[in-house]
Amino acid sequence: MANEDNLFKNVIAHAKEYGFVFPSSEIYDGLSAVYDYGQNGAELKNNIKEYWWKFMTLLHDNIVGIDAAIFMHPTTWKASGHVDAFNDPMVDNRDSKKRYRADQLIEGVIEKLEEKIEKEVEKAAKRFENFDRAMFVTTNARVVEYQKKIDDINARLKDAMGNGDMAAMKQLIDDLEIADPISGTKNWTDVRQFNLMFSTEIGSLADDANKIYLRPETAQGIFVNFLNVQKTGRMKIPFGIAQIGKAFRNEIVARQFIFRMREFEQMEMQFFVKPGEEMKWYEYWKDKRMKWHQTLGLGSENYRYHDHLNLAHYANAACDIQFNFPMGFRELEGIHSRTDFDLKAHEKHSGKKLQYFDTEDNQNYIPYVVETSVGLDRMFLSVLSKSYVEEKLEDGSERVVLRIPAPLAPHKVAILPLMKKDGLPEKAEAIMNDLKYDLRCFYEEKDAIGKRYRRQDAIGTPYCVTVDHQTLEDDTVTIRDRDTMKQERVKIAELKAKLVDACSINNLLRKI
């Protein structure tokens, strides 16, 4: 755990030092759980967006994209359930004065029990040559006991969350003897519900009639535009609507860098299907979204599914794709079968029909919805944290390198004249002027070439092109690979095609 904490601290420090992420309003001592993306961070973020957007709208001819407004009519949030039910159960420790999500404290106990099971499995696997995990976890007395505790805690948590029973949740915290990680005491307040929406006023009068909310999710902008898109696009069920946009939640416990923020960005797609076919599409999107993530090459072992035991009020099935962040496996993307809850609720509150006429069945119905929702900031953190490597080289020196997948890297290629004389800068600039229409390039001529290589390693530039005196003689350059540090001589005429192919997002998409 100590190593993971150090890794996370190093990633955060690196993100600031190399222009990826800055604390917001830092000259005024910052603002809690709010961050700005620097020059390299903005590029990485845009490349992630492009990878997602192209996957959704280019690879699927029945998915289109929109960009809905952040401000929406306040009845939207009454219909969606956010006004009445968008709450987190919070509990305070009287000694540390710190506030926590009650359900996350309880889930922390479950995680520790799961870790104990894994340790028992690992020990047993080393002892037995033909180890049968399935048999072991159902027959080993200690593992069975741990699993029984997990099942009991999950059942009680699900019941308390489902019934909104804060007293039962407090009792569960007491029964599990959960201690505050800071004070070490179990001196807890009662569990209370906190609504997470930010409110503001629209217009000139600050009264309830003018009260609106900053959207806590992007999905509702899709639902209220369901018929607009369906009719103008002549879309036929099944079809999807995709959107990338900002959302805002007044997180009481915001922590872990950009993992949980008050202002964040979502990449969501709502897929409208015929009632009764939602589970087929739910499984389809689970599989497709996992492949999309794993194609980046960050390690298939760093992803896993986690089925929800406590379903949201709108869902009949839900799971997370979890990623192995520096602080352990956490939610990266959610896939939910939302039934017809949203469209039905908006139809009721607006008085407008939100139904689809199926020409094949000659009937009207409210479609069911399967949602995929990935946090862009969490996606950014997953790429950054798994790409960060502190490497000791054969000559005994060390380097820090970001092994960001080439199609996502902020800069694809650095153009480096070996020296600032003899016509080398002019030749390097000519090469860059040719490449910059197809690739984001970085030009640098200051310092020794080794130092420049290290700087490019640190911001994740996959290729460096060095222009030297031989270039002037035979129109060849040296390409250095970031990950292997190997160099090869390439003709300038072949340079563009080689780099464009290596850095193409389309090549990623073809692998999915």
Description:
This protein is of the alpha+beta class. The chain folds into three domains: 2-73 and 197-384, BirA Bifunctional Protein, domain 2, CATH 3.30.930.10; 87-195, Herpes Virus-1, CATH 3.30.40; 399-511, Rossmann fold (3-Layer(aba) Sandwich). The chain has 18 helices and 23 strands. The strands form seven sheets. A seven-stranded mixed β-sheet has the order 3-9-10-16-13-12-11. Strands 20-19-21-22-23 form a five-stranded mixed β-sheet, sandwiched between helices. Strands 5-4-6 form a three-stranded antiparallel β-sheet. It is an enzyme of class 6 (ligase). Residues 176-417 form the Aminoacyl-transfer RNA synthetases class-II family profile domain. Belongs to the class-II aminoacyl-tRNA synthetase family. One of its GO terms (molecular function) is glycine-tRNA ligase activity.
The share of residues in extended strands comes to 15-25%
Average pLDDT metric = 92
At the fold tier of CATH, the topology name of the largest domain is BirA Bifunctional Protein, domain 2
How many helices does DSSP assign? 18
- Helicity range: 40-55%
The CATH architecture of the largest domain can be given as 2-Layer Sandwich
From the helix content, strand content and strand pairing, which structural class follows?
alpha+beta
Shape, please? globular
Radius of gyration: 26 Å
**What is the terminal-to-terminal distance?**
34 Å
Largest sheet: 7 strands, mixed
Contiguous uncertain segments of 5+ residues:
none
For this structure, what is the CATH class of the largest domain?
Alpha Beta
Indicate how many domains the architecture comprises: 3
Major sheet strand order: 3-9-10-16-13-12-11
Q: Would you identify the CATH H-level superfamily of the largest domain? A: Bira Bifunctional Protein, Domain 2
Number of strands: 23
GO molecular function, one term: bis(5'-nucleosyl)-tetraphosphatase (asymmetrical) activity
Protein name: Glycine--tRNA ligase
Catalytic activity: tRNA(Gly) + glycine + ATP = glycyl-tRNA(Gly) + AMP + diphosphate
Enzyme class: ligase
